[in-house]
Each structure stands twice: as C-alpha cells, then as structure tokens.
Amino acid sequence: MTRPHPPILIGGNGERKTLRLVARYGDACNLMTAGPDDVAPKLDVLRAHCDREQRDFSTILKTVVAINDPFADVDGLLADCDRYAALGIDEVILMADQDPARYIERMAEQLMPRSSAEAARP
Questions:
Q1: What is the total count of domains within the chain?
Q2: Is residue 2, in this structure, part of any structural domain at all?
Q3: pLDDT per position as a tens digit, 30-61
Q4: Is the pLDDT of residue 11 over 90?
Q5: How far apart are CA 107 and CA 96, in angstroms?
Q6: How many Å from the N-terminal Cα to the C-terminal Cα in the chain?
Q7: Three-state SS for 10?
Q8: What is the DSSP letter of 27?
C-alpha cells in the first residue's frame, strides 16, 4: 500500500489523547515504561481505542523505551524483553548514557552475546 506520508510514530503514555491519536493516525507507538507491568494496561487502552476507530490493533508497530539501566541486571532485562514480546511489543529501545561509545561497547560485551544465545535456545 502506498501512502502519501512517511510512517507516523507517536510516543507517549497518555490514555485519553495520545493512545487515541495512535489508534487513529499512528503507524507505530512508543511507550515510555519502567517495566512490562506498566505496558499491559496501556496496550489494553490502545486496543480499545483501535476497536472504536475500527482499526486493526495488529497493524500498529509497538515499541517501548526501557528507562532502567540495562547493565544493572542483565538477567532482569532479558526477562523483561521476553515479557514485552509476550505482550506484543515489537521493539525495546535502550537509551545510551553519558558515554555512548562505552555504552555500545558494554552492550556488545554484556548484552548481545546473552540475547543472541537466548534467542537461539529452542
């Protein structure tokens, strides 16, 4: 399907306005969250807005920004990613700290090998 505009990503957690706008106009939404327990109710609200708009909920790309330090608890982060995936989140975005180059090195050393190994498990 060709569109007259680039994909529209709407970020935020507002249940009455923001998520309603996602249901009406968004191709993607980005939720800011402290964890998966915060996401499930927001997705329920978005699903209800989609129903009212007669929009297929599954057509919206769903992302979250994980605001916790991923290196403080790698096991916890990977478990959260599994929970996000089970909820229907398509992408988890991690925010670099004050030293982006070192942050990426730490991701390559500490997170990527673990997440790749976890993904390869049957």
A1: 1
A2: no
A3: 998 878 999 999 999 999 999 999 999 999 99
A4: yes
A5: 10
A6: 35
A7: strand
A8: S
Residue 87, token pair as written in the block = 């909820």
The per-residue b/e assignment along 77-95, b for 16 or more CB within 10 angstroms, e otherwise, is bbebbeebeebebeebebe
Distance CA 120, CA 122 (A): 6
Inside any domain, residue 22: yes
User: Residues with Cβ < 8 Å from 97, sequence gap 6 or more?
Assistant: 69, 103
Q: In CATH, what number is assigned to the domain containing residue 85?
A: 3.40.50
What range does the domain containing 80 cover?
9-120
Torsion angle (degrees, nearest 10) of CA 56, 61, 66, 72:
110
pLDDT tens-digit profile of 12-29?
Answer: 999 999 999 999 999 999
d(CA 97, CA 114): 21
β-strand partners of 63: 30, 91
